[in-house]
Amino acid sequence: MTRAEVQPSSIPDLMIRTAVRAALAEDLGRAGDITSNSIVAPTVRFAGTLRAREEGRVAGIDLAVAAFREIDGGVDIQVANDDGSDVVPGDAVLVIEGHARGVLTAERTALNFLGHLSGVATATRNLVEVVRGTRAQICCTRKTTPGLRALEKYAVRIGGGVNHRFGLDDAVLIKDNHLAVAGGIAAAVKAARAGIGHMVKIEVEVDTLEELEEALAAGVEVILLDNMAPDRLRQAVERNAGRAVLEASGGITLESVRAVAETGVDLISVGWITHSAPCLDLGLDQGARA
Amino acid sequence: MTRAEVQPSSIPDLMIRTAVRAALAEDLGRAGDITSNSIVAPTVRFAGTLRAREEGRVAGIDLAVAAFREIDGGVDIQVANDDGSDVVPGDAVLVIEGHARGVLTAERTALNFLGHLSGVATATRNLVEVVRGTRAQICCTRKTTPGLRALEKYAVRIGGGVNHRFGLDDAVLIKDNHLAVAGGIAAAVKAARAGIGHMVKIEVEVDTLEELEEALAAGVEVILLDNMAPDRLRQAVERNAGRAVLEASGGITLESVRAVAETGVDLISVGWITHSAPCLDLGLDQGARA
Amino acid sequence: MTRAEVQPSSIPDLMIRTAVRAALAEDLGRAGDITSNSIVAPTVRFAGTLRAREEGRVAGIDLAVAAFREIDGGVDIQVANDDGSDVVPGDAVLVIEGHARGVLTAERTALNFLGHLSGVATATRNLVEVVRGTRAQICCTRKTTPGLRALEKYAVRIGGGVNHRFGLDDAVLIKDNHLAVAGGIAAAVKAARAGIGHMVKIEVEVDTLEELEEALAAGVEVILLDNMAPDRLRQAVERNAGRAVLEASGGITLESVRAVAETGVDLISVGWITHSAPCLDLGLDQGARA
Amino acid sequence: MTRAEVQPSSIPDLMIRTAVRAALAEDLGRAGDITSNSIVAPTVRFAGTLRAREEGRVAGIDLAVAAFREIDGGVDIQVANDDGSDVVPGDAVLVIEGHARGVLTAERTALNFLGHLSGVATATRNLVEVVRGTRAQICCTRKTTPGLRALEKYAVRIGGGVNHRFGLDDAVLIKDNHLAVAGGIAAAVKAARAGIGHMVKIEVEVDTLEELEEALAAGVEVILLDNMAPDRLRQAVERNAGRAVLEASGGITLESVRAVAETGVDLISVGWITHSAPCLDLGLDQGARA
Amino acid sequence: MTRAEVQPSSIPDLMIRTAVRAALAEDLGRAGDITSNSIVAPTVRFAGTLRAREEGRVAGIDLAVAAFREIDGGVDIQVANDDGSDVVPGDAVLVIEGHARGVLTAERTALNFLGHLSGVATATRNLVEVVRGTRAQICCTRKTTPGLRALEKYAVRIGGGVNHRFGLDDAVLIKDNHLAVAGGIAAAVKAARAGIGHMVKIEVEVDTLEELEEALAAGVEVILLDNMAPDRLRQAVERNAGRAVLEASGGITLESVRAVAETGVDLISVGWITHSAPCLDLGLDQGARA
Amino acid sequence: MTRAEVQPSSIPDLMIRTAVRAALAEDLGRAGDITSNSIVAPTVRFAGTLRAREEGRVAGIDLAVAAFREIDGGVDIQVANDDGSDVVPGDAVLVIEGHARGVLTAERTALNFLGHLSGVATATRNLVEVVRGTRAQICCTRKTTPGLRALEKYAVRIGGGVNHRFGLDDAVLIKDNHLAVAGGIAAAVKAARAGIGHMVKIEVEVDTLEELEEALAAGVEVILLDNMAPDRLRQAVERNAGRAVLEASGGITLESVRAVAETGVDLISVGWITHSAPCLDLGLDQGARA
To answer: What is the pTM of this model?
Structure first.
């Protein structure tokens, strides 16, 4: 499966350029790549293939390509497996030919983006596959790595998941700590509705079926069922009777996710697909051969 | 064990402020925290405790505190367990009292930094504890999360590890791809030495004992023994006879690290303590009580 | 009516500081305020009152105050009429006492923000007052001044209006140009729903009652009725029968808005309250007296 | 009349790129154009014409073009009416052909710049036409929209007006509030002259003919006649006898400007051409035909 | 002589903060001051005095103080010799007491600013003293160090000199290369006057007395007499007869400046006071004693 | 000798672009080049040659070229004498042909970079030539111009010198003020070694032969011999017997450097090659002829 097939909203180029330049600057420091610049003559060329070293789903090709291009505008790159592709160890991802200095200088930045985002996409995909056949979608949270939220949320989409809100400003999510200072669900929802525009949705976190009823009575679009066992989730789905979108969350693992999905909830949100997904192992080997 | 005891070089305040403001801006977007601002009156106060929800080592307190302070300069924060502390589930880390709007707005940014960096510190510490009693130190790499290198390297120090170079510019590391285009170890080291200043060290990656001899003959300060089995590492240690600093790397896990350490190498570098350490689970609960 | 009473979501302080510093830097250039610095001794003080010179609603006090404070941290400022206040010519808005150099240097930047945002708030309020008693709310658009969108949308809220989306990323609005390339309303809505998260609402622009039916059939949350005469709008309201939120737009003026509001639409969106609202005239006079 | 004919100093490209990228980033937010990216396939093309919907003078073509180009480097744009052209409703301004996603994503940013700057140019031109035949030039002030000063001043030039100073640092303007703390015109001018370089001009604001005499005695290059009626202005022109450049200001409208111009003043400065000029209405229609 | 006495326009605080933070970030890199942080305990204090090690005039105190304060907000600093003071070797400039880590971290940045700007001020002062008694003022150029123009121009003022234009945008200077493509002095001046506002002065560079007459005929405010010998300058002064301000330039040294000044020119502009002034030697010694 | 022959590590392009854009923005201000834009028609072309006006070594060609290219992407530039070339008065450095507006706008920024960096390279080369035949290398310090450190250190390499550390973070240098608060050399070195990674070198400043012995005993890699006379340096070299790298510093001039070099030290560090090197005089003349 490739990016063309899944067609998730892409990342704006402006954001890619900004992120890649900042990461390159972080790695280049003040003096640049003193290893490559000292020992590799400026005219020497390097042909290499960036390959997967473990099974997973690729995400972040545009960032990897941008890293190489920012350092050497004339580098030749073939995309062997684009975002959304599932790869096995040894599969080529990018085939690269360019000045050796440029390729070796950009290598680590390219791999750091690609490994991180492919890790997020792979973790998401793994959950998505387990719940296949249920109505549940896998969803991310705001528990993201500082500075990388939009990129990680893109990787979630590449993994087959869907995105929760991108920040504090694009949707309302009323959580337990809000309710503690806002005088209950009905009051909080009423205040929220008065304070936001008509294009903004409201979600409320509930811990019990009583709170679920309150939230439904308040007419919220989405309800977060926090830390409920599958039985309780099933009861919530029944009571809801299709009125609100139901999102389950709280300590969900690859092992427990199927049981949650089978309760009939619409969404299962998982923080660790963005904050704790292990990097996908990829490496650059000499030799240009897909 | 606390930060005062380990005393690792701290992070410059300028860097903390820059990182925290960028992360807050990422979360606030254009409209800010529309949930808190709509449903919480400006004068309402919130007292809460940020607690560990799993075992681990704390790192990133200064960033979490800065996140709350940037949003509400008057917030009162007590540090219950500073960077370097080992905590168990339920342990308080920060005790916070301030305007509810400010605390709830900054909460996620504070937790994202603290969880990520504590995760890195915890992963490092776990390896450090396994090798205790050997001469081996646990060391990080440049396989870091884009934008967070200096912070992650700080967390490695808090975990008891040591830092490899911070970028392409502060030390020379000649790897296999460099050697492929530079004409062998001797030539590469000679070129590097001519191109760098007297305060810069040179490390060479070697795959065999023959290359090790070449590197020693070239007089490099540090040698990276890549993907060698413990037996081979032991041979390398013997041949080296204390001349160069020896660093082992390649697929090292919590299970395999002790065997590597017992070969007598000086350093064991591990990419996953920075790029794949799971976030440490922490949360903010209502009620100010350490 | 004051800010405390309307309690619209406030602007994040980080955004205020960034906007004010950029505006001051634009005015200070490379050499700073060469007039004040040349002719006013550093110790001379200035007491002044910033007053309205025409009728309107105040918005932007925090930015004006920040402008004075950035230049002279010790300036003393009393807010006589906070955001949301309706003022008449001569009414004091801010009473200021500080170093003359600082006050005179910051004056224009403070006034430019305050005049612009109060202009937006006043234009909004004027429309809001005309439709009072109907169900219609006055709503802004993305037709904003480059760089000032979040501030102008805040001013719309201070004026009693509500906000449409803040950017291309926080809600879906399918317009005529989209439909032309997307194969009709049903296909476009289906594609949009597949591409976005569960917290994102969809709005479709329709030009005819037939399109309205299509949009309702597609289940969109909001429908934009573009350039329809009041009679047609009334028909649309009837056909809708409360299913979708209805937004009227297109060439609406202070004269025509009441007729539109009386058709029963939920929202009336007006571009000129942000892109063409005349600045509210305010000025700084010597003498500190509210 | 086109840009080539009026040849006003152009805006530096660096400034255009910076302004356009910031405006696009403001609109794209974190997730980009979720509407276009979800419902428009990447290969679909769009041909459209950006047309005037009301009478006015065009300004800001370079910014509009840059907005489209930043998003899609391969977009094809023909300029039908360049900066300085006077257009009537229906006149094409830009004819555009490119990827539909790119064109629709950049559309609003392009229009916001073009509408705002054309509004400033049109307001200026309207005043310029009324005073044609007199010696008076129409001049702008520092009452500009925060962040857009240089762009608005460029639009004033396109409208046929001239620019007053660009900031606090490039010329001296001694106003009433300065005089209040500086001990009178003679002392203030003397202090200013001692504090500035030989390439900097000095202007003094005067309210009476007595102050005019003081300013002339002090040898200032420019005198601002604030809020004087035409009769008084005529007296000022006589007394001045060509010694200083005379600038009239204060509440000047399209109706009153001719009378002011006929007094013989050199300049008439008007704040509202930058801070309150209504946006020129332009829109993008499908179909590429100038 | 101190800053209070000369009272030159000060540098905006915003500019000082921006410059100092950038310089500190340049020095701190990614890991901060690894020397001080490793070997100095956080509670240790340092008392020191920053003293002149050679004769000269001090400039840049605000930047030095800001460097220390940015790193340690609580540092105590006494200014012993403020900007504008003439110091001899051993004279205290700043007396500092604070955390040793902070003082030692900021030391080099503080000294780099202070040494550079004091060097500019000293070079300027030396010229100013040589021409004392003539009408000539010493003036700087745009031949400044990239990034430091406004600071260097401030130091020129502290040295008793005056400033030429700050950039390409605040005054017109028509040089030989312009004349070569603009069709002569008369045409160039006419075009310039048509293209600029009424607050902008025009200067023309002339190489001969014939060109001087052309420039005077064109009515320019300032004339640059480039590379003329004193005799020729004297002739130019005579022909000018007080009409334009006359500026001499070209290869002027401490030895030749008096002869130039005695010709009666108004200004002598010297590039090397900004681009080649040697740094004033200052150092930080332990022990807090002015 | 050209850049190709000396092959010093080059400056990252990202850094060049950032530095050049900032310098251009500083010169363009808000209104751009009002002289060229007013008096030179947009189509007029300019052919010129940038020539040396005094003897020296060229450094900074990439920055000069970037300055012209940023303003006019289509400018044609031939490099007649690249970085590392020694030039005499009249030698062409760059031959340029492009739009006159662009060339004249970028001229000063290009010259300011080229003159400053060539000045640093020339000062370094002059010292290098005097010590030729000894083992001593000429070395720079952190006494650099704020904002230009990496560029100046590059110019030092072009001059044949070597670089000391680039900042506080890439090597340890324990100076007298550190020792004063750290309890002596042995303790300081021990603490430093514990606080840094294995790729970081340690240098200690010593004033006496006794301290030299202490530093050698502590096993530091580099020792800074501060302000020692040649005789004392010779004694230090003997005692050291090749153990540590020895660096001499303190008040070294073109006259005294040979005597210092002949003592057998490895490095001679000189602050003034970066902070006080006079600008190399270069100028742009009409006429494209190398």
So the answer is: 0.96
